[in-house]
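Consider the following input, taken from an annotated entry for Carotenoid oxygenase (Lactuca sativa).
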Amino acid sequence: METVSCCSINSHSSFHRYTNFHYHTKTIKSRPSFIVSVFKTPIARRSRKEENPPNVESGNTLLEKVFKKLDKVIVDFLDPPLHLSIDANYILSDNFAPVSELSPTECDVIQGSIPACLNGVYIRNGPNPQFHPNGPHHYFDGDGMVHSIRISNGRATFCSRYVKTNKYLIERQHRSHVVPNVIGGTRGIGPFMARAAVFAARVIFGQYDIINGIGVANTNVSVLGGKVYALCESDIPYAVKVKDDGDVITLGHDDFGGKLSKNMTAHPKIDHKTKEAFAFRYWATKPYLTYFRFDSNGNKQPDVPIFSMEHPSLTHDLAITQKYAIVCETQIGASPMNLIHGGRLVGVDSTKVPRVGVLPRYANDESDMKWFEVPGFNIFHAVNAWDETEEDGSEVVVLVAPNILSVEHFFDRADLIHGSMEKVRINLRTGVVSRKTLSSNNLEFPVINPAFIGKKNKYVYAATSEQSPAKCRMMRVSGVAKLDIAATEENNEIDECTIASRIYGNNCFGGEPFFIARDPEDPNLEEDDGYVVCYVHDESLGVSKFLVMDARSPTLEVVAEVKLPQRVPYGLHGIFIREKDLNEM
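Applying the prediction step yields:
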């Protein structure tokens, strides 16, 4: 394992500014899709350009003052004592604090040179609250902001832009939060009902345009049918466009011709060969899960309701093989009983046995859906899956994913959870499920060469969590590890498949790595022939940078280091889009 000094720049210019919020206005709120089940029927959305603000009442009206007063009453008299995990002054400090938008700004390459094959844009999403929360706020509740670095012939241009969601635009006009959040603000039946009532009143009195949704678009970025989307599982996608100068603009909601009337996962899986996308949505009422897909042109195909999912499940991701789509029913889900007992609406049911569901990926209904119990298997992100055949002709599905141990701590004590990389083999004929631990390290945010999605692959790149995380805060990423997940096939006694790693340096932390193939059009290219990129922040110097690492190097050697003109808060998921693909969008 090699350690690299995070930054060689002696700049302290931005450090003190982000130890607390720099905004002077109030709160932002959001939530996962469970809140939208309050509205029982699907709602048709209108597409709207970001420059057209919604027609709602001004934040200075008497009515708005009444609503703000009611919000304060809920915080002061109904909310239970503020837990550290939802205390904004605690969880949104240091490099979890939000930043302002930054227009395209040229960057300095301070080490090495950017490989010519990286012409294009790396764009990563993450929560970035527009206003300072005045009550309970979870890290996942923040407004989506995309941080992009446009690369052209070795030069880099950086940009940070909010995704101009319906929620963002209306709350900007009110200059405070309007939409309640489920993760941070619903502990106990009293606060939940009070916030729901106040929000319903805002809608009735024209304070909020519910037609265009309540999502935050803060989780991921994906390409569907040749268009770029910012995604969050609480809403339908927001189309965005990367301009020639590196700027990112929001084009608006896209309901795919009225065929996507509710929310969808932030993790659609793209078949590299067919360009099809496979997705789903979860819901708080039956059907708890609905599967669907998009053809190569981005045309959404009919829904496939999965009524055999028996309980609500926070199913965050899926995997595909050449034959099947794979979803996981976890112990995390929504239940009103949690509120009655003083807990969160979204909680953990320790009595529930997790299941893995296997459905033909071109299914028109769930008649061929098969479920397999996998005790203690709770995943948020799937690495990959593929098909195999046993000697007796039995079909086998293989799934690789980090299993979240101690999942009961996910919302309140994220510092206590551990991602254990596992390989799960399911014999579809016999129903036998076998499991193998691939790494004992604490790994999450796994990625592979995108060309191998749905096919048997060998290498995985994953973020390694810090050794001593701060209590109740999201864990920071201290480095990146490369795993050879095929090693156990040659020697089943192997229980650690890590073959390369890099630690970012003292007090330096990053996020999700992303693999970029050197030449994805070359059929003879080795699976790991390419680069791993990531945003990294030095908390001592207050400086962020963009790292390019050699994916084949045993130390994941840094081949280029770009100093960024603005701090990049720790975030979630992203994507790299090549120049030729951008030109066709």
